[in-house]
Amino acid sequence: MFKISYNRAIMRVRVETVTPLSIRAGETGLDPTSSDLACVRTHHRVHGTTVYIPGSSFKGVLRSTAEAQLRGQRFKHQGGSELEGACDPANHRTSCAQHKGDDTAAIHRANCLACRIFGSLSMRGRCAPRDLFPFSASVEISADERANLARANRVEVRHGVLIDRISGAVAGSCLFDQEIVPAGITLHGEIALHNYQAWQLGLLWSSLDELNEGFAQLGSSKTRGLGVVRVEVDALMHEQRYTSEHPAAVGDLVGDREARDYGLFPEVRLPAAEGRARGLSRRFEVSGPDLARWRDAAMTGLANLPRESA
């Protein structure tokens, strides 16, 4: 399925922190004055050292949210077999990691819906969130973005103490402090999709809705009130093989036989968009009111997945 590029998309997103955010670094470093739980940072060539949200952290939240929606449901693809919505990754005997062999179509057909979009040990994923930064451009940024970058890096420090759950008292001298990115900060990033079906775009949008509604949170210390965010999709760039003047999901770009071999689900028609030639491909830019139409089509594809009755 990935040997040929049928379609791909870049979803440009903007994340605003509603409550403070804590994305912890993997190690504390050698600075004795740093916090016990420091924010993860990276160094930008132009803007210097800055806090950010790693793409892996963003992807982890999107995946766990999508799995919670899919788990416990079964679906039937065009190959005729039943398929789990989400496997149990901790059970290596039944998870999608067990699917091995040279028949890539059979492996894809056997992977659950969650692994089809986010990947497993037996198959790469279609969804690749990228790092999110407190600025939208790599070099030239506006005055507002420069102020946002400065505010993001004026991290707050919160002091905490561990409590003995039995006695309710302080557990010895277990004091700690942690850095947090303040509320009201905007971070910009992208989510890349490759050879995607409309329902997969819908599942991604549904996971973003869970973040917007507060049912899912980013980062650590979620039970302490951190990590509530709002996510806005600013634009979507869709590109596909130059075989059609109309944007299409991968199920409409492959033949019927390949769709059955790989166990694809029935497609819905993506809305029209203004396209232009780009080499051997055709590119469609979607923004403004058109985004709502694409979201509705993607959500329709998700809602129309053929479910197995309980």
Proportion of residues in extended strands: 25-35%
The beta-strand count equals: 12
Shape: globular
Separation, N- and C-terminal Cα atoms: 31 Å
Would you tell me the overall average pLDDT? 88
Main sheet: strands, sense, barrel: 6 strands, antiparallel
Number of helices: 7
Helix fraction by DSSP (H/I, runs of at least 4): 10-25%
Structural class call reads: alpha+beta
Question: Which strand order does the major sheet show?
Answer: 6-9-1-10-12-11
Unreliably modeled segments: none
Can you tell me about this structure?
The chain has 310 residues and is α+β, with helices and mostly antiparallel strands. 24% of the residues lie in helices and 26% in strands. The protein has 7 helices and 12 strands. The strands form 4 sheets. The chain has a 6-stranded antiparallel beta sheet. The protein has a two-stranded antiparallel sheet with strand order 2-3. A hairpin with a 6-residue loop joins strand 7 and strand 8 (170-180). Helix 1 (55-70) packs across helix 5 (198-212). The two termini are 31 Å apart. The relative contact order is 0.21. The model has no long low-confidence stretch (mean pLDDT 88).
